[in-house]
Amino acid sequence: MKKTLIVLTSAALFSFGTGIMPADTYFALPEVSAQYQNPAYAQTDMITADGYGVLPPNMPFGQAKLMARRAAVVEAQRNLLEAVKSVAIDSETNVEKSMLINDTIHSEVSGVISGARVIDEEYIRQDGIYRVTMSVPMYGSGSLGQVVFDNVIGNNPKVPVPAPSPLYNPSANRVNGSYTGLVIRARGAGLVRTFCPAIYDTSGRAIYGVYNVDKKYAIDYGVVGYAQGPQGWDKVRMGTSRAGANPLVVDIVEVRQRVANKCDVVISVEDADRILAENRSSHFLDNYAVMFEI
User: Does the structure show a pLDDT above 70 at 112?
Assistant: First the structure.
């Protein structure tokens, strides 16, 4: 009778793709242009799980119903924890592994589960059971993302994205200078959504990742946005995603798996230099206007 769901919901203008709830508060970051402070571009996924409780017999109905509800809440929280454990942090680890080696993460994840919200509930009369649906946010204040980024980024300031290769000639390659964002197309490549994705080129150079993002921004919005399936791809095509109305679109060479998860993308050296050269003019990486199509 148990059922655990990882449900991805969308804000009005953006479709993500695997588990979370909208934050009520969004932070305006001074270094980020107003275009990318719009809450419509935030990740709005939640991890959701059901729990069930059986009404005990030989007890007044009201008391039995209350006890069944309590049992359903406990089971939903247990199911939530199991779902949360499987969430990828990066290509090397997931939440469960981090909890095993870091007592702070274990404690903070437990706190997130304890603070889970009841978003739906019902008494199923024909079965004599009570169902509760609970959720925890992946982004925003008090979220799983806050636990992750507090421990991954800590108090370190963001690292600037690199410059193009010294041999790259922006004039010869006709830098556009008006791109609103970056779209990385990885459709059908088996890319796993994660809190800490990265973009590399085929030489192994890191182009963009979690350390290039302000921590508060990462907590509220994520390092990248994910567009999954036709509905998500349509948001990108219509210019209503985080990448804006005129994104630079680049295809991947492959998906990179370092240890456990296929979370990182690899692009050509030529595309990497083009992205970094365009960013000097348009600053879309500096504004974190990055979407992965999966």
Answer: yes
